[in-house]
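User: Show me a protein chain along with its predicted structure.
Assistant: Here is one chain, sequence first, then structure tokens.
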Amino acid sequence: MPEQARGWVTRSNCKRSVAVRARNFLLLLFLFSSAAFAADAPKESYGLSLWGTLKYPENFTHFDYVNPHAPRGGEVKVAATGTFDSLNPFIAKGNKAPGSAATFESLMVGSLDEPQSFYGLIAKSAIVAPDRSWVEFILRPEAKFHDGSPITADDVVFSLGTLKKDGDPAFRIQYEPIASAQKIDTHRVRFTFSDKTKRELPLIAAQIPVFSKAYYTTHDFTQTSLEPPLGSGAYEVKSIEPGRAITYARVKNYWGDKLPVNVGQNNFDSIRYDMYRDEAVELEAFKAGEFDFREENIARVWAGGYDCPALRDGRIKKERIENKVPQGMQGFAFNTRRDKFKDRRVREAIGLTLDFEWMNKSLFYNAYKRDTSYFLNTPYAAEDSLPSPEERALLAPYKDQLPPGLLTQAFHLPKTDGSGNNRPQLIKADKLLTEAGWVIKDGVRVNAETHQPLTLEFLFQTPVYEKVASPMRRNLKKLGIEAGIRNVDDAQYVKRLETFDFDLIMLVVNRSVFYPGEEQLTWWHSSQADQQGSNNYVGLKNPVIDALLAKITGARTESEMRPAARALDRVLMWEQYMIPNWYLGAWRVAYWDKFGRPSTIPPYSLGFQAWWVKPTH
């Protein structure tokens, strides 16, 4: 038997065998590398979620909280408070017309029954880089502006650049980590991020409103205007009565009408907003049938203000609808830029003059609960709990900069017996003020060194809050503090907030925020404290809070983010930057009996956009 047949090889055959083995090895290496690359390769997805899971499958036809067969038609009238002089809701200037943002579409849109999940609208899909350094959106070819021109990548690139350069400061800080937008082709655009640790950036990019580049070459984006802008949404401006009313009409042949995210919604032919300066007048107008739907925010009015023949005979419906909306914080916010409010003890002392238990019984018909967290109704509320080991680890490096007791005690708001005699709280307030260097002289609270009196002013946009501030005013008087209440018109109020010209204002923070993220920077980061028009109304420049914000926005998992968010909540409460008010946890709505609505109400929104006018009306 020849040697070759017995398995032996000659020298030349050996060379050939080595070459074959090398080739096979390289092939296997290529295949292995390709497989590994494919496993990590970015995948196109019909939706985006903060933590990677979506409730609705790729082939979903509509959201669960809509009626896909809802009838269409009819006119709806609603009310808004104040006035308006601008149809551009994306700049800091002017008083925005109610509903004006709805004329523009975004790349993706959120669902109302799952937090932080977005599905394709202008963009049919998205691709996120494995390291989250960029996101690409693939646009729908059928997406169009109201003049019939197509929405392209050029428009998306223009929109980001415009908002970063000329938009409201809240947009500028939100989009700052989006380093660039690049047109890949006509229907494909890529956003590149300067900080790939910020998990929310793909979702933030998905919510960018898209403007027509061509339109804004002949129109100044930075100026207020009552000329209806070119949008792309389901509604467009139909008519305007400057400062008094605005009507939107459903767009005929709206390009996105049949998309799963829109099915069962946008059912009204027209929506009219009538402006009212006085809420009492507004209520009487509603009862007289001047408009159709009203959400009530005042317990006293809800308890007895709607009694009228139309309510008694059923023509007006009045409902309290429970919800799971994150409540955030509503309260009186201090302007800590002012020296008199820089000491936490002063802020705490002033907060002790709010007797919630008495107010709830005497003014609110026991309708409310006290706000105890900036993330109320979410897993990130630190209310009534001790810091976890993870929270203590985050806060330990800043121990000397934290209020005493924060690391070892749960935070509790003061409670009274509801009798109206809150003497124990006022005694504590007096002690805190004295410790902070504010003493009583001839019945007036003055600075021990400068002898300047301690005064403060509540600045409001509506007289409604006077009934809340007036009892505090009486208690402050007992402490030697003169407190004023000033109501100003919309234009003056906006101006004074933009320039931080106030002592205390009524502020609502984090309402409907389920997962704390980039939006927290606009409220609390020190970089925004001196930025006119920013949301950092309190004027915070707190390095502890800045560090926690970096942890929140840089967290890659929910379990990593949770202790940072709870620690932030804890620091904000202990520092007494706001005097917490109260919350309801439900919608109180009254409406004329002309509406139908889906059987399912989404937990995080009333979902009025899915209601319809009954065909008989």
